[in-house]
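Section 3.1: Structural characterization of target chains.
Under the original work plan, the team committed to producing a structural model for every single-chain target entering the pipeline before any wet-lab resources were allocated. The record below documents one such target. The sequence was received from the expression subgroup and is listed exactly as submitted; it comprises 157 residues.
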Amino acid sequence: MNLSIIALAGFVGTSTMLAVMSVLHTLKLANADMVRAIGSLYTRSIKGSLIPGLIIHYSVGLFFAFLYAKLLGILPITTVGSITIVSTFLGFVHGIIVGLALEVRVAVYHPVPEFKKVGFAVVVAHIVGHIAYGLSVGIVYAQFLDQMPFRPIMGLQ
């Protein structure tokens, strides 16, 4: 198993997701400042939440890159394109789960008033961000297909 490729995919995917959500937040399409929202769960305020938020966000992003690799490894995927499509779909499903969890549970208990109101736009922003994550992870995996742990399962020996 090539751990460095999976870690690279997690870093690229997390960075892409962060960029997409930052654009959505900057354009005021949604309150999608996810890093500060995550960090302020730890710090209990916006002040000082950026660094803990980044550490948590990238740690979770790396974890999910390994989970995506494991899931891709058990599926009968046969082409580079299908890796990217399936990984993007995983991001979509992941985004729906996270978005709904935010709407139903997290916002209710968030310590910062700014993040207590979620709504449809925030849920959609998380879905879009996770789709970007899945797409980016899939692209990285596809670039290093011959070195990935799921290659033999796909019959691409």
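The longest helix spans residues 80-109.
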